[in-house]
Amino acid sequence: VDNDRRDLDMNNKDVDAEKMTRFIRMNELRLVTEYNPVTAIGVMQSSLQLHLLLITDKMSPKHPEQMHRYRTAAELFKGKIFFILVDSNLKSNERIVSFFKLEKSQLPALAIFHAPDEEQDVLTLDEVSVERVQDFCNRFLQ
C-alpha cells in the first residue's frame, strides 16, 4: 500500500483465516486510488461499497498538500471507505463531475457514494483538511 510495507504477525496464535483475509483486504488497495480508464473496472468491482471521491485539479499548486491530507484521512477509514482521486482536468472524468451535479467552479469537492442504493452526498471545499474529510464521512456513515 503506497510503498509502505505492512506485516501481519504470523507468530501470534490468534491469527486465523478471517483475520488474515481482513488484513489482506485492508492492505490490497492504495490508500487513495486515482480514477482513470485503467482503474475504473477495479473501482467498480471493489468489495468496498462506499466510495469517497476527491474531485480536484491535479495541476493546482495546492494539490500535493491536498493529497497528503486526503491520504491521512484515508488511513482513518481504511477497510470501510474506498478513497478515490478524480482529476477534473481529464476529459474522460467529465461524466463523473456531471453525475454529482458539480460545475468546475465548485471544485475541489468531496463526493460520497454508496454503490448498492446509489445514495450520495457532495461537499464543496475551500480547502481539503483531514477534519473536514473525517466529519463528512462520519456524517454520511451515521
TrEMBL record:
One of its GO terms (biological process) is response to endoplasmic reticulum stress. One of its GO terms (cellular component) is endoplasmic reticulum. InterPro entries: Thioredoxin-like_sf. Belongs to the protein disulfide isomerase family. This is Endoplasmic reticulum resident protein 27. It comes from Phalacrocorax carbo.
